[in-house]
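Q: Predict the assembly, please.
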Amino acid sequence: MTDERPHGGIRLGLCCQFIDAPVRFRQATHRHVASLAPEQGRAYLASIARANAIALAHAVEVCSALGIGAFRIPSQLLPLATHPVSGYRLAELPGGHVIIASFQAAGRVAAARDVRLSFHPDQFVVLNSEREPVVTAAVRELDAMAEIAELVGAQALTVHAGSAAGGVPAALERLEHGLDRLGRGARALVALENDDRLFSVSDLLPLCERLRVPLVYDAHHHRCHPDGLSVAHATALAAATWGDREPWAHLSSPRDGWGSANPRPHADYIDPADIPDAWLDRRMTVDVEAKAKERAVLATGQAVRERRAAAAACGRGAAG
DNA sequence: GCATGTCAAGTTGTG
DNA sequence: CACAACTTGACATGC
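A: Predicted assembly structure:
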């Protein structure tokens, strides 16, 4: 059979940053913005947004050139956009419409090069917090992210289930209510990821299936926080939650090895042994969460090709 | 200049 | 009960 992808069905993705390629996203702190006169503050934020739109287009081009088929956009793409004081909407910034056009242009590059984009908001976004203001802020953040996701054509907003206070069942019920509060855009793009301490694949699957929220399967988290499902089974069940869309998964290796006291921190590279066999013939996107960034993605691609070649030689000769 | 500390945000688990 | 982990550049401060 013919397969256009270099690593079988697997599309490998890079997370947020480059180590070699000169692509850098800018950030901002509220403290600094607040020290400026309002007009200067907005000009400063606009310059960062403009720079980050261009950086995103560059990031996509570099990924494409390297054969990397997905890119996780830094959650600080628009720094402070949802901050209670410094917050802003793109259209209100000086030159805002040019910046918007710039993000749309980056999205067209991604579409043309077939680089899949996603967001992964950081730990402050807790849709199922017991504290109302936290949930409000989480909804606000995800709605804002959905807006920019729409501009650039990003296909997923991946979040963890959040707090486990009160026990997993109660926490999942709160999560369901939190999901209900998302705007249409965010609700259509949100996906849930199993984490390494609190919510396993089997904890999340029923909710994902019932609410039609895709499950991003993180194999490293699953191995840190197992639930009785095999990696192969979890892969298949999670993939089914994506329906017609290409399933998304995350992969990393433990920095200090699986035998260490704490296997959670990520290593520079993916240990080829950590690439699940069950993934080798699947059509799926795999974000490589490794400190060596694009070097690690390229090395993982090489490892996947070798594993596939070995499997083919060992199995049915030169079958595809 | 250069090294070092701080920065919007939450939750959990350790010391 | 306080604080580190999660994680990262940019800015401010102090030498």
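Residues 17, 24-29, 31-32, 35, 76, 122-123, 264-265 of chain A lie near DNA strand C (CB under 10 Å from a C1'). DSSP finds ten helices and eight strands in chain A.
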